[in-house]
Design brief:
Blueprint lengths: L1 H55 L7 E2 L7 E2 L7 E2 L5 E2 L3 E5 L8 E3 L4 E9 L3 E7 L5 E10 L8 E2 L4 E5 L17 E8 L7 E3 L2 H7 L5 E2 L2
Parallel strand pairs: 1-14
Antiparallel strand pairs: 2-5, 3-4, 5-12, 6-11, 7-8, 7-10, 8-9, 9-11, 9-12, 12-13
The protein binds zinc ion.
Zinc ion binds next to loops.
Length: 219
């Protein structure tokens, strides 16, 4: 009789352990499920922000030349290629290179509607202009030779509007530093998330898409 009581108790203790073990597992499973739901929601959020970029694209930033066949531009997918000015870092953009290496020759137009957010000299970007589009995308145009007009933050911009001329400014603290690299337009695209105020995305594929919407200018 005594033995069977002990066995009985042992059995109950074992069952309790088993139940506890199972409960812990179920709880862990619930946590994992919650985590994956969060990750999914975050991924969906990023995807929606990324999709927004397409909604604001209108024109390729460099119009075609009506009069000079040699006025070509070329670019490659140089996303995160190494850049070394002021330390090594990844290239956050696409460089549209000038076939004719004359600063101020190629016009640069806005690829979207928007509002001027930043304008003026930057050590790396030279004379740059940053435009916030209707879907909250920041389009960054750098190394300009000059501006199309005297822009100020808050100015309303229409897609296709002349922003300035392609140049080789930048890579210097001194405003107006030029000639440190070939004439080109550096194009950057940034989206804004709750955690990251400036999240760079690769402009290459958007530019490829925009090639079919190219204005032509007489230059
Ligand atoms: Zn660049």
């Amino acid at each position: 009789m005594r033995l069977s009581v002990v066995s009985y108790l042992l059995l109950i203790i074992s069952i309790c352990f088993l139940i506890q073990f199972e409960l812990a597992h179920i709880e862990e499973g619930i946590h994992l499920a919650e985590d994956s739901t969060d990750a999914e929601a975050q991924a969906r959020g990023y995807y929606e922000l990324y999709e927004n970029i397409w909604k604001d694209l209108v024109y390729f930033p460099i119009p075609a030349s009506e009069s000079n066949e040699e006025a070509v531009t070329t670019y490659e997918n140089s996303w995160m290629f190494e850049r070394t000015y002021g330390g090594s870092y990844g290239h956050e953009g696409t460089d549209i290179m000038a076939g004719i290496q004359t600063p101020g020759y190629y016009p640069v137009v806005s690829i979207s509607d928007g509002v001027v957010e930043k304008v003026g000299w930057l050590e790396k970007g030279g004379w740059r202009i940053g435009i916030r589009s209707p879907h909250d995308v920041y389009f960054y145009y750098a190394h300009l030779d000059s501006y199309g007009e005297d822009f100020h933050p808050g100015d309303v911009i229409k897609a296709g509007q002349l922003l300035g001329y392609m140049g080789d400014t930048g890579y210097g603290v001194q405003e107006g530093t030029r000639g440190k690299f070939d004439v080109h337009l550096h194009m950057g695209i940034y989206i804004r998330t709750e955690e990251i105020p400036e999240l760079a995305v690769n402009p290459y594929w958007f530019l490829k898409y925009l090639e079919q919407n190219r204005l032509s200018y007489n230059y």
